[in-house]
UniProtKB/TrEMBL annotation:
Domain of life: Bacteria
Main location: membrane
Species, as recorded: Mycolicibacterium cosmeticum
Annotated localization: Membrane
Listed name of the protein: Chloride channel protein EriC
Transmembrane segments: 21-42, 67-84, 155-184, 191-211, 223-246, 258-281, 293-311, 318-347, 353-371, 392-408
GO CC term, one of those recorded: chloride channel complex
Pfam families referenced in this protein's UniProt entry, alphabetically: Voltage_CLC
Keyword Transmembrane helix included in the entry's annotation: yes
Topology versus the membrane: Multi-pass membrane protein
Length: 416
């Protein structure tokens, strides 16, 4: 190829990549807004409420609706997955991007909608998988005819997935770090810049729907700086909880997603059990935001926190075993927050420690997420962005996340 043609081709690819960054960021925001609107619609329809959070809706619903709502939603989602998987398996988004394979756009989009349906109706699964898939599908559709290199396309699609996560939770840095530290595991300037721009754009585009509201509201209670030392003490607990969570989810998840009609009664049964449990513990339905909210506003009792610590991961594993698909970020966070609440409440009650329960809950949640996602920087920043507590607590969350991750690596190395 003559030098002039090569130069023109390089300039064209650079221009197309720049346009791709903008397009992916905007479309990821659309995907985040669409999944958020659909999720809220399903929640309101399931629990028959109009204002407030899912916890408000579950708390105001009657016992029959609490029990049958997740069951009906689970049966409908199971029917959808059965019909979808009969045509062939839905490939993993992460594996597809890393292998530079074409995205199965329609199956992934339908799968994303079914994830929103099952989570919105009360399934104990994360909501973050759906916007990631839908954002990647939108981004791939917009750029598929462009002359991008495989590396550039991988960056754009991974950034779209991270931006989708950032959009639904209004966490631009967390969304970018998800791309950099989990999907691509690269600190190349091209990766970092693309991830930051797309995630920021997505959060801005989704703002009319999300209103840039953070899922958690930090209380005004003060926290002592000596809590930094407790972050190190929390690390062993976070490692234990995180490893147990990982093993439980790995044992529950089928090696190959089920395509049997048994998906319908299986997911419905998981929904029914979740609904029955919600009669006594309305925090259980949904992705885990309700548990995080009550942990942060200090409305959890010691006994309730202990029960939720056991039930939340068990119900999540039950949905996975039944064949449902969903994220695990918020269920892991909720489990970690429940564990931190148990320890803080117990020390306060029996030892008069005077610990700040919200800070203890989120510190442990950051440590657990560092184990389950194997990304301590993402864990610390993501938890801080969710609640926006005082800035210096970001250091506390990061210490807990990095300490837990380092301890986990030592334990894993000895196990081998």
């Amino acid at each position: 190829m003559p030098p002039t043609d090569a130069k023109n081709t390089g300039e064209r690819r650079l221009l197309e990549f720049g346009c791709g960054v903008l397009a992916v960021g905007l479309l990821a925001g659309v995907a985040g807004a669409a999944t958020t609107l659909l999720l809220h619609y399903v929640e309101h329809l399931t629990y028959h409420y109009h204002l407030g959070t899912l916890l408000t809706g579950v708390g105001a619903a009657g016992h029959i609706r609490r029990a049958t709502g997740p069951m009906i939603g689970g049966a409908l989602a199971g029917l959808g997955w059965w019909l979808l998987r009969r045509r062939g398996p839905v490939p993993s988004l992460t594996a597809t991007i890393s292998a530079h394979r074409p995205l199965a756009r329609i199956p992934m989009a339908v799968d994303a909608v079914l994830q929103v349906l099952v989570v919105g109706s009360g399934a104990s699964l994360g909501r973050e998988g759906a916007p990631r898939q839908l954002a990647a599908v939108f981004g791939d559709t917009a750029t598929r005819r462009w002359t991008l290199t495989e590396w550039d396309r991988e960056i754009l699609l991974a950034s779209a997935a991270g931006a989708g996560l950032g959009a639904v939770y209004s966490v631009p840095i967390g969304g970018a770090l998800f791309t950099v530290t989990i999907l691509l595991r690269s600190w190349h300037p091209r990766v970092v810049g693309t991830a930051l721009v797309t995630s920021s754009l997505a959060v801005a585009v989704a703002a009319p729907v999300t209103h840039l509201e953070h899922p958690l509201v930090w209380p005004s209670a003060g926290v002592s700086y000596r809590f930094v030392l407790l972050a190190l003490a929390v690390a062993p607990l976070a490692v234990g909880i995180g490893m147990a969570f990982n093993r439980l989810m790995a044992a529950a998840r089928p090696r190959t997603p089920s395509a049997s009609w048994l998906l319908i009664p299986g997911i419905a049964a998981a929904g029914l059990l979740t609904g029955i449990c919600s009669i006594w513990y309305p925090e259980l339905p949904g992705n885990g935001r309700s548990i995080l909210a009550v942990a942060v506003d200090s409305s959890l009792t010691l006994s309730a926190a202990a029960v939720i610590l056991l039930l939340k991961p068990a119900l999540t594993a039950l949905f996975l075993r039944a064949g449902a698909v969903g994220g695990l970020i918020t269920p892991a966070l909720a489990t970690g927050a429940a564990a931190g609440s148990v320890v803080a409440l117990a020390l306060n009650e029996f030892a008069g420690a005077g610990l700040n329960v919200p800070a203890a809950a989120l510190t442990c949640a950051a440590g657990v997420l560092a184990i389950t996602q194997r990304a301590p920087l993402f864990a610390g920043v993501f938890v801080w962005e969710l609640a926006r507590p005082p800035e210096w607590l970001l250091i506390v969350f990061a210490i807990a996340a990095f300490a837990a991750h380092a301890l986990w690596k030592r334990v894993a190395a000895k196990a081998v």
